[in-house]
Specification:
The chain has 411 residues and is of the alpha/beta class. The protein has two domains: 143 residues, Rossmann fold (3-Layer(aba) Sandwich); 251 residues, no CATH class. The chain is 40% helix and 14% strand. The chain has 14 helices and twelve strands. The strands form three sheets. The protein has a five-stranded parallel sheet. It has a five-stranded mixed sheet with strand order 8-9-10-11-12, with helices on one face. A two-stranded antiparallel ribbon has the order 6-7. Strand 8 and strand 9 form a beta hairpin. The longest helix has 21 residues. It is globular, with a radius of gyration of 23 Å.
Length: 411
């Protein structure tokens, strides 16, 4: 009957909205991941914390390749329409009118998102570019999407990107091996073009996000990012009871006041009025959401899965947002582990960065690093192979002493 006949979607409104988005998008600065993504794959997933530029990245791709075409369409699961409209049926209707590429933003905000995506991939020829919270990392393997979609991680901006954004430059990135082997030549070359310490403090305080140049509104925006993660992203993905959001906020505040935090799990659980297993679960959620980094000691082996030995805020901008006067030693370590962790993101191994008894950190189970001030000695790591001092306040290093800022060129 006529009543049972499904009407097909009119996409005119969506294309008009898309043109409004594209008019505002600039192509002069692209995040580091843009050139690494293979957009020819049938399904691409880009995961990352709220605020790191996922939406801008896919709109830049759309503008650069499909601005005058109706073969590609951008939609966001923030749109109330998708509370009552099947994404699967929407996608099939789009394909029927000649659509070839569907860019789906904020997929984690759609209930049962994975079943929609799997069915679209299996039942259509559409290509998909999907963005979602970094929290989805906890979901993807269980959703059986790991073999259907190519996954990428977009992390906060590196120091190199901050310089490129501010100086309108195109400084290249260097691998960890290149920095360890050739740091003197690299640093001499770079410091001949700019003075790193004119910009490094700015990066530490407000340079890790694409809205870095909004100095007046930066901390307000970053507070909004934190609240979005705690009040929306984590509850959406983990089906967390909203009554527990205040406990998450309290946990983050307690951690931020004394990072790096060496946790007494039982005491921290009592302070937050949650059980010990729930606390460990919350720490895992907050790491996946890009708010903290949980590190364990190499010496603990498989016991490391029980609890972290130290907890850091994920980047130094969070420290300046949540604390009145962050400790400079903590900021050095946070910058180093943030840049290393982002550089290693997506790798299979779980022990790429760990705490070490001799020195502060061990990377790839091979390289030992001790972070400190200019005059930091090699005393603690003098007998350790492949060991390096990462020194703040030096423009150019020598031997196995490397400037801290240079690790901001890893990605």
């Amino acid at each position: 009957t006529i009543l049972n006949k499904r009407t097909y979607m009119d996409f005119t409104r969506f294309f008009n909205e898309q043109q409004n988005y594209l008019r505002k998008v600039k192509l002069d600065f692209k995040r580091y991941l843009y050139d690494d993504i293979d957009f020819s794959e049938q399904a691409v997933m880009i995961l990352g914390q709220c605020g790191v530029g996922k939406t801008t990245l896919i709109l830049q791709y759309l503008k650069q390749n499909f601005q005058a075409s109706q073969k590609a369409l951008y939609i966001s699961m923030d749109n109330p329409l998708f509370a009552a409209t099947s994404l699967y049926e929407f996608a099939l209707d789009f394909e029927k009118v000649g659509g070839e590429l569907l860019l789906i933003d904020e997929i984690h905000k759609l209930k049962d998102w994975s079943s929609h995506i799997k069915t679209i991939i299996d039942q259509s020829n559409l290509k998909l570019v999907i963005t979602g919270s970094s929290m989805l990392e906890l979901d993807i393997n269980g959703a059986d999407l790991s073999r259907r979609a190519v996954k990428y991680h977009l992390n906060n901006m590196s120091f190199r990107e901050f310089l490129n954004l501010n100086l309108k430059s195109e400084y290249k990135k260097y691998s960890l091996d290149e920095i360890l082997e050739n740091h003197y030549e690299i640093a001499v070359n770079l410091t001949g073009k700019f003075k790193p310490f004119i910009y490094f403090k700015d990066y530490l305080t407000h340079g890790a996000y694409p809205f870095a140049n909004d100095k007046i509104g930066f901390y307000s925006k970053l507070t909004g990012v934190i609240n979005q993660v705690l009040q929306s992203d984590i509850p959406y993905v983990c089906s967390l009871n909203y009554a527990n959001i205040d406990k998450l906020k309290k946990l983050l505040f307690l951690l931020s006041q004394s990072v790096p935090f060496s946790p007494n799990i039982s005491e921290l659980a009592r302070a937050c009025e949650i059980s010990r297993p729930t606390l460990i679960e919350y720490l895992r959620y907050m790491q996946s959401a890009g708010l903290i980094i949980n590190l364990t000691s190499k010496s603990r082996g498989y016991n490391a899965i029980l609890k972290p030995d130290k907890i850091y805020l994920s980047n130094t901008n969070l420290a300046y947002t949540l604390s009145i006067s962050p400790n400079i030693g903590s900021l050095r370590e946070s910058f180093f582990i943030n840049q290393i962790s982002a550089y290693k993101a997506g790798k299979f191994q779980t022990d790429l960065l760990m705490l070490n008894k001799q020195g502060d950190f061990i990377v790839d189970d091979k390289f030992t690093f001790e972070a400190g001030r200019t005059k930091k000695s090699f005393e603690q790591i003098k007998d350790v192979q492949n060991s390096y001092v990462v020194a703040d306040d030096i423009e150019v290093g020598s031997g196995n002493k490397i400037p801290l800022w240079l690790f901001g060129f890893l990605y």
